[in-house]
Write a structure and sequence with these properties.
The chain has 147 residues and is mainly alpha-helical. The protein is built from 4 helices and no strands. It comes from Microcella daejeonensis.
Length: 147
């Protein structure tokens, strides 16, 4: 009879409660599928519809962010991509960093930077003013002239 050695990670066994590794694995698969749809939708609208990349300027972005649908789309894209990437980085740190103190520092840096970017990105999406006061009318969206 053969025996399988215990995994080398001390975190793999003897834990009770929520299996965060399993939920992280499931999140990576589910968010990956949703991200493919969000990313290709984003690229299609920005690069293939209309005039292609030539159309992307302040007015184009302002027009998109004036629409609640695109605010939700961009927010979902931001949150899923950032958390997906951070979870991947967390997995790499857990796999390759042997010293517990260094691991804690790196995981903390990943968590802080991810939280900061998600918060700042969400603030930009929801507080963006598509019609800034005193802006050149040639540079802002066409619907700003009516305001």
């Amino acid at each position: 009879m053969t025996t399988i050695d215990a995994p080398r990670s001390p975190y793999a066994t003897t834990r009770t409660g929520v299996n965060w590794e399993k939920w992280g694995w499931i999140y990576m698969r589910a968010s990956g599928v949703v991200l493919v749809v969000l990313i290709f939708g984003h690229l299609f609208v920005n690069l293939f519809l209309g005039e292609g990349v030539k159309q992307i300027d302040f007015a184009f972005v302002a027009g998109k962010l004036a629409d609640p649908f695109w605010k939700v789309w961009d927010t979902a894209l931001l949150w899923l991509a950032m958390i997906h990437g951070a979870n991947g980085m967390r997995t790499i740190v857990n796999d390759y960093v042997a010293k517990p103190q260094v691991r804690r520092i790196l995981l903390g840096a990943i968590a802080v930077s991810t939280a900061a970017l998600v918060i700042l990105g969400t603030l930009v999406i929801y507080t963006f003013d598509p019609c800034p006061a005193g802006a050149d009318p040639a540079l802002v969206a066409s619907f700003c002239e009516d305001l």
